[in-house]
Amino acid sequence: MSDNSHSLTALNWDDSFVSSLPADPASTNTSRQVRGAAFSRVEPTAVGGPKLLALSESMAAELGMTTALTTSEGFAEAMGGNAVVDGMKPYAACYGGHQFGQWAGQLGDGRAITLGEVINDVGIRYELQLKGAGPTPYSRFADGRAVLRSSIREFLCSEAMHYLGVPTTRALSLVATGDSVRRDMFYNGQEKAEPGAIVCRVARSFLRFGSYQIHAARNDIDTLRRLVAYTFEHHFPHLGPVNKDSVVAFLTQVGQSTAQLMAEWMRVGFVHGVMNTDNMSILGLTIDYGPYGWIDNYDPSWTPNTTDASMGRYCFGMQAQMGGWNLVRLAEALYPLIDDMDAVKSAIETYEKSWSQASGAMVVGKLGLDTHRGEADQLLWSDLTELMQREPTDMTVCFRGLSKVAAAENPLDPILDAFYDPPGPALQEAWGAWLERYLDRVKGIEGRQARMDAFNPGFVLRNYLAQEAIEQAEAGDMSRISELLEAAKTPYADGVALKFGGKRPEWARNKPGCSTLSCSS
Ligand code: AMP
Ligand code: MG
Questions:
Q1: What is the average pLDDT across 343-354?
Q2: Is 279 in the pocket of ligand 1 (CB under 6 A)?
Q3: Which of 59, 158, 215, 439 has the fewest CB atoms found within 10 Å of its own CB?
Q4: CA-angle at 167, arms to 200 and 75, nearest 5°
Q5: In sequence order, what E strands does 132-263 have?
Q6: Do residues 174 and 152 lie in contact, with contact meaning Cβ atoms separated by under 8 Å?
Q7: Residue extents of the structural domains in the chain
Q8: How far apart are alpha carbons 492 and 453 in whole angstroms?
């Protein structure tokens, strides 16, 4: 027998999604409304010169891919969409969504194409999906492609989130297509050609709230039911057959995992930027990295997304509330399978409870407390966040420093680095008073520093760090991408914090890509 470990065909491919669910009967790859189907069969459109720019070795290993495979020409070809190998059954999923509060109808995988499912050697099934692989029936008026800058951001941030311990879709590879893509980055009529790229994303499932909404909106309850049955079988097997109780339990669990995800975003200072219901994973994963950003100075009203700058619907401090709003939209979609308003209400109330628990646990972890003592601890927290907003104060640096605060001569010393401008006497005094309360509260708590440093990252993928990697990559140098990927692996280590963990440099304060991002990608 010949050794084919360097070949993608050696993987254990499966096709549960396309073999279980109704397919689009039409096979033409033209933009259209697709009814009565969960997906359309469509293949990637070939690109000019696929070249592997970056690889997540840990993701590759998890999928059972050898180095011989990931360094082969065939790998770059397949991850660039130029080869569909035996076992793959490519498709684009049909979904809808509420965008910025309005029902937008059919959206779907307009530029993402799932190649197939791989079951790894411990039996975990993953979907491998190319983002930017060309048009699909869901592309509407767009080209199905993605630019290098947004692909670098998705590749790096997916992996950074994974290592931070935040539930997320993963990234396997980043491939340059060799073709250019035309984009109007600032929406000012100045279109320009940019290098194109494709990220291979990986998740147990890319199902979104919008995947269910589209069928409910079309009153296609049969397809809705089949999709829910598929979801239970593969992702919630303990729920059993589809009935009123199991669907309520599903909604409750999606609410719990969503609430936990929101607390995780608040813990690490992540702003998704576009929490539309088509970007909400039913597994509680961070999904669809677009104009996301990281909090530098602590500011709940901040969003990097220029499209949302005036409304601030999806700003940092609104995310938990928006998660709840989105869950109600999912509840509406599932309602035909439940038909009991009280049961739905109690599932929604569970979201509020889960958020309150998760955010309480976040406060405990961020402050290094032993337990949450209720109102007094909540006040300690809100006074701190109020202080961090009085003058621009870096969130990440501040919490990293807070773990080192001790009843020393000047307890403010370890957090001085967090201030973007040196604090004046009044601010120093306010901090002094807060620190006194804090030190009193944490007196006698063992192992506080170690626990806080394992909870409050020193390294996050600050907007300017990704932007530097993009600018270097556009000039042909990929080294910063690998350096950041390496740094992202140990976000809680002090060494990394020293190299990339400092606060945002002054030049990045108002620079596009560092402080603001458009949806053009
Ligand atoms: P997003 O805001 O990235 O979640 O995208 C919203 C919808 O637009 C999804 O259905 C995407 O598939 C689609 N979309 C975004 N960019 C493109 C593109 N360049 N080509 C085709 N569809 C796109
Ligand atoms: Mg999306």
A1: 97
A2: yes
A3: 439
A4: 15
A5: 170-183, 192-203
A6: yes
A7: 8-209, 238-365, 369-444
A8: 6
Query: Ligand 1: which atom is nearest the Cα of residue 95?
Result: 10
CA–centroid distance for 479 within its chain: 24
Percent over 90 (pLDDT), the chain: 93
Q: What is the mean pLDDT of residues 36-46?
A: 98
Instruction: Tell which atom from ligand 1 comes closest to the C-alpha of 112.
Output: 12
Ligand 1 site, residue 98, Cβ cutoff 6 A: no
The residue among 187, 202, 108 whose CA lies nearest residue 155 is 202
Whether 50 lines ligand 1, by a CB cut-off of 6 Å, is no
Please give the angle made by the CA atoms of 91, 39 and 7, to the nearest 5 degrees: 20
Is the Cα torsion angle 354, 356, 361, 366 positive or negative in sign?
Answer: positive
Judge whether residue 447 has pLDDT over 80: yes
**Active-site position among 24, 109, 220, 278:** 278
How many Å lie between the centroid of ligand 2 and the Cα of residue 357?
28
* Residue 65 CB neighbour total at 10 angstroms: 23
User: Measured in angstroms, how far is the CA atom of residue 106 from the centroid of ligand 1?
Assistant: 11
Cα(20)–Cα(229) distance, integer angstroms: 10
Tokens of 335: 């309602």
**Pocket flag, ligand 1, residue 139 (CB < 6 Å):** yes
The three-class DSSP label of residue 80 is coil
Nearest ligand 1 atom to the CA of 143 is: 20
Q: What pLDDT score was predicted for residue 519?
A: 87
- The number of CA neighbours under 13 Å toward the Cβ of 203 is 24
Cβ–ligand 1 distance for 288 under 6 Å, the answer yes
Q: How far is CA 27 from the centre of its chain?
A: 31
Across residues 96-101, what is the average pLDDT? 98
Nearest to 216 by CA among 188, 251, 252, 249: 251
C-beta separation of 419 from 391 below 8 A: yes
Q: Kindly tell me if the per-residue pLDDT of 215 is higher than 70.
A: yes
The C-alpha atoms of residue 81 and residue 58 are separated, in whole angstroms, by 22
Alpha helices in 64-197 (DSSP H): 67-70, 73-79, 148-164
* Residue 278 designated active-site: yes
Q: What is the pLDDT of residue 1?
A: 42
Q: What is the pTM of this model?
A: 0.97
Beta-ladder partners of 112: 131
Query: pLDDT band at 494, cuts 50/70/90?
Result: confident
Which amino acid is located at 252 in the chain? T
Which residues fall within 8 angstroms of residue 330, CB to CB, at 6 or more apart?
Answer: 209, 212, 213, 251, 254, 277, 280, 282
Q: Which ligand is nearest to the CA of 131?
A: 1
Q: How far apart are CA 187 and CA 178, in angstroms?
A: 24
Mean pLDDT, residues 416-421 taken together: 97
- Probe ligand 1: pick from 94, 139, 181, max atoms within 8 Å of CB? 139
Is 208 close to ligand 1, i.e. is its CB under 6 Å away? no
